[in-house]
Amino acid sequence: MATTITLTNRCRQLRDDAVHIKTHSPFVAAQHPYYFTKGVCEAPAERNGDNAYLMACGVASVMRNAAALIQEGELIVGHNYGLSEFLPNDREAAVEALRGSGFSPEQIDWYFAHKDEGAWYFAHKASRFTRYPDPELIGGQKAKELMDELAVVSGMCTSNHSVIGYEKVLRLGLSGCAREAEYYSKKNGGGSLYDAVKIICEAGETLGLRYALKAEELLAEEKDPGRRAELSLIAATCRQVPYRPARSFFEAVQALWFAHMINTWEDFINANSLGRLDRILYPYYKVDIEKGILTKEEAFEIICCLWIKLYRDYDVQQSCAGGCDSNGNPAENDLSYMMLDATEALDFVRCLSVRYSARTDKKFIERALEVVGRIQKGVPFFFNDDVMIPALESRGIAQEDARDYTQIGCVETVIPGKSNPHAVTSRANFLKALEYTLGNGRSMMRAELRPGLETGDPESFESFEPLKEAVFEQIRYLIRVAYENTVRLIPNAGKNDPRPYKSLLTEGCIESGRDFNDRGAKYDNYEMMFLGAPNLADSLAAIRKLVFQEKRYTMGALMEQLRNNFPDEAVRLDFVNKAPKFGNDIAEVDSLMAEILNMACDYLQELSVKHGYMFFAQPFTFLWMVDHGRTSAASADGRRNGDILAYSASPMQGRDHNGFTALINSLSGLPTKKTPATTSAIVEADPQLFTEQNIPYFADILRTGAEKGLCNVQFNVVTAETLLDAQVHPENHRNLAVRVSGFSQKFYLLDKTIQDHIIGRTKHTSM
């Protein structure tokens, strides 16, 4: 089933250069900070304090001035040296970077004299997680203690984590976008946002022209006829886009890349994603194929060139393939397969998700699974339309828009070009709810603190139900504190951290004159991450069985073990081995996990309706299961004090031992239609499961799981033996990549805590 299309020599060379970071030379390191700062400092004095206008001046300055780089042999041109490529903090090192970027001594002196005056200031001083001072916290000292213990995190993410409407740049060009903004400016009486987007749109013509001139400069020296033709095409294309509409597939891809570069110059590279590229680019592809001016092989090479442009060592610039159309019908096309083909052929980590449902052509699911098994880097990963679309609709997203959902960064959900999801905004650690219940509000990690509610002496609970209800009361308290303190940050975030370019390409902002970060998007929602739910379910199941049903231990004896970090190993092993664990298709614990999430999702929705700020539930941990684990006491699932928590909605590592199908059944039983920000899980599978003979069965299990409620699933395809050897001999496994936590990364780059966590996950060898 594997593709017969192979990499061209051009793409092999460009791939090798990208992987070895030859394109990230010292020459590009200082381009962005210098010109961004210069643009802000040259803004009219009367606009001082107008953050949206100053941000636009900085971005436009980069567009007009930063070096136009065209690498030897490349077709898609432009380098997105974005805000993630900071100058070193050390002045001597920063001077060296500026010198290496071609700046004169006078320019270097100017930069250091003005760098704190410019909008580069925003990148350093406006944290992407805005927080209020402790005295302003709702809940006062108790809320501060909850945050100190990482029982809750309240913050406001105002940077990256988006998918803006790139197709608008392809369809209208930045000139057309400017005309649209001008229409709404006149309609609404003008304003700062309209002035800001006009500056950026006008700079779009200069950006394209500079690359056209660079291509013509290279053309004048080029002798090879083939490369001369390519440079002529690049020059003509860059004179058209991004300022004017794209007229061909090649122009569309180049316009898309320019549009993405501008986004990164305003808002960091990290987790600014591209969305459903097979849907965005297909109309251009179809027309060119039918006209006979483009072959599939040429289109494949162009997609590979875009993939190479997007490559970074740590990459969460998400793209999506597959899924349904606006009528709900499966809509995978030639480009959907081509994106999979490019991912396999390039054999590096390129962040790609696949949307599917029970109605998706099985051939497409099989091809996606084949790529997972062949490159063994955790990509692509899978999202179920049968869950995600109803989940989004249940939270007020129109059906047509819900059907167009895509992913950002790791696994977060967004309606492309129509929403600001405020991903990774707040967190609640559910395992702390049990700790506070057993301490009657006290922390077991810091006994002097009483951040939780006083829900009664735990030894007074005569049955399991009162204990469970006390834990649920603590969870509701954690969610409420996280919610209310996050809501208080929203006005401050909108005022201090504007995003005019994002606003230009997000429906609702230009129409209303409100910035992307000032609730301007058509859908303005917030995501709350639920951590520790699998550990809590396992702990409650163990207490129910070993304390209340079998009476092996009293509540007092259990609490003594937990306070002292299981001094008796035999007792700990009882709680590990003699009670059911989530992930094994065992109803008595799986139902508890579902009940926990049902309750939490319903309560979060209740708060959203009451206060008017829509929060999406998200059982997802990113890497924070490490940090939150360090601040969580020993728990009744047999976990020791400070140990890592379970990843997202996955079983605690090493506890799912009844096989792959049992795990899928457990995951499918969760209330995933109440978690529109996705319920994330990573499944570890032995490479032998991904044989040509097994993949059709694998696809059947995914489609059946889709009908039953499986949400998001990601696969690691590597043996524990390989991982252990890579930990000891990293030099022999430099290209080994694994699914970590919503993203893939080279194994040798991970710290030992995360490596051990991944090694400890159950490696399923049978279905």
Q: Number of DSSP strands?
A: 16
DSSP summary: helix tally: 32
Low-confidence stretches: 124-128
| Rg over alpha carbons | 26 Å
Helix/sheet category? alpha/beta
Cα distance spanning the termini: 22 Å
What general outline do the C-alpha atoms trace? globular
- What is the overall pLDDT average? 92
What percentage of residues falls in helices of 4 or more residues?
40-55%
Chain oligomer state: single chain
**Largest sheet entry:** 5 strands, mixed
Sheet-strand content, in percent, reads 5-15%
Write the layout of secondary structure elements.
Layout: H1 9-19, H2 26-29, H3 31-41, H4 51-65, H5 91-100, H6 105-114, H7 120-125, E1 129-130, H8 140-148, E2 152-154, E3 156-157, H9 166-188, H10 192-221, H11 225-240, H12 249-267, H13 277-291, H14 296-310, E4 319-322, H15 334-346, E5 352-356, H16 362-375, E6 381-384, H17 385-393, H18 399-402, E7 406-408, E8 412-414, E9 419-420, E10 426-429, H19 431-438, H20 464-487, H21 490-496, H22 500-504, H23 509-512, E11 523-531, H24 533-549, H25 555-563, H26 569-577, H27 587-611, E12 614-618, H28 624-630, H29 660-668, E13 682-685, H30 695-708, E14 712-717, H31 720-728, E15 737-739, E16 744-746, H32 752-760
Helix pairs in contact: 1-14, 3-4, 4-10, 9-10, 9-12, 10-11, 12-13, 12-14, 13-15, 14-15, 15-16, 16-30, 19-20, 20-27, 24-27, 29-30, 31-32
